[in-house]
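Write out structure tokens for Inositol phosphoceramide mannosyltransferase 2.
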Amino acid sequence: MSLIELGQMKYFEPSRRIRKNSDRSESYEIDLPRLDTNRNSIMQGIPKLPLKTLSLGSFFIFILHWLVKFEQVREHGSFYDLNIAVEKDFQPYGMKEPELFPVTGVRRIPKIIHQTWKDKMVPRKLTSWVKSWVKNHPDWEYWLWTDASAREMLADKYPWFLSTFDNYPENIRRADALRYFVLYEFGGVYADMDMESFKSVDPLSLKYSCFLGQEPYEHPVLDSNFEHIVINAIMGCRKNHPFMKKVMESLPDFSHMWNVLDSTGPHFLTLHYRQYQKNNIPPDVDDGVYLAPAEYFFPTIDPVKFFWMRTQCAKFDKLTKIQQKACKSLKVKGVKRTIPSISFATHHWIHTYLDLSITLKGPVEIHTVVPHVKIYKSSKTLS
């Protein structure tokens, strides 16, 4: 047999010879390799590749396959092809009827928008969303909390918390904690910078003294098998609300938690919301807390979760009842959803540690975005 090389690939070509037949005709005889049950003999004819090369190749093929599948689900967001039976009378997760809001009355939450960033130089990618809050709330104050002004405020008004604040291992924990103190001290509405406003939250500010947002219904169900996770990306509260007092005073007791979600983030906030609800305080009274439907502030599912959700729902028979309901909802509604008219805002799910465009697009000084911005000064004045 002759060995033929083609680029980096090698294969064996059987050798042929002419045979004279008895009737003087000619035919070809082909010598095929004899099958040897000895593994070493068989492997002698196969080019050897380093184990490291094979491992890396397999790894990259796996990653490429995963990325292709992720992109397909991200682009199309369809769960329709999954083998999941959906009853005709099935009711997916979501609001069943619109809520009625007052148009006049005593305002319960002050007209202040709070946002945070490390300094006055705000990423250009976020500025249009910042402006949306100013545009839809023209008679509201806008406060930006930088790392420096945040610490100054805490030093002035809550020095007992400084040790915990300074010893947090990540900046995100400080950003999480700050928003609770700001809402307790000043009142108003806090919104992450990747939240885009569609219309004024005045109706909520008239009806409730404190409101919280929740992630899309399917998020916690498929992630952790429970319903309704409170997310701190947007919150509104009156000044000195007892719920915010409870939350901020509990922060030191949870500072040892290794996961930021449990220490200062959504899991932490969800726990305290559930505990507070045991008081059976109606949401529309002065000390009440209202958990807004996901449609109000989080009408879209985080694209990062698309592939994971599809993977989970592919194991439909092994899921719990509420997880099966979530999968049926996804099959009916899909994951790429149109924002409903009842939405006050939407979350763009910008994961700043993954999104290079946050940095690449460059920063803009906050005064060029919001000329009337207010920043806390330790002298007790605002600039």
